Amino acid sequence: MITKINNKYYDLTNFKHPGGYWAFMHAKNRDATILFNSYHPFSKDKILKSIEKYRIEEPKIDKIITPKKFEFDTPFSKELNKEVKQYFLTLAKQKNLTIRQVVKADTTKWIFI
What we know:
- The chain has helices at 21-25, 33-39, 44-50, 75-95, 99-103, 107-112; strands at 2-5, 8-11, 30-31, 55-56.
- By secondary structure, the protein is an alpha+beta fold.
């Protein structure tokens, strides 16, 4: 499965995505930058570092589908991201949890869904 994130190509065929197969398939043969950045706003640097071993120079497919351009590094988006992160950090501290625990659905929530 080839995908493009932040102008870099990755062959993630052997990568086991924690969100499961179907969540992962949304990035197949696509520029998944918008999808990736929107789903991983607080952990994107860590995740990009972990998938670096899957990086490739040239994709072995004919075409990568590229969505319309979206700017993530505007002053507004940076301020919004900072405020949202602060909200979840405060919530995590109040509940004595990690930020990951307050932003991700736990097993009970998945069963309810």
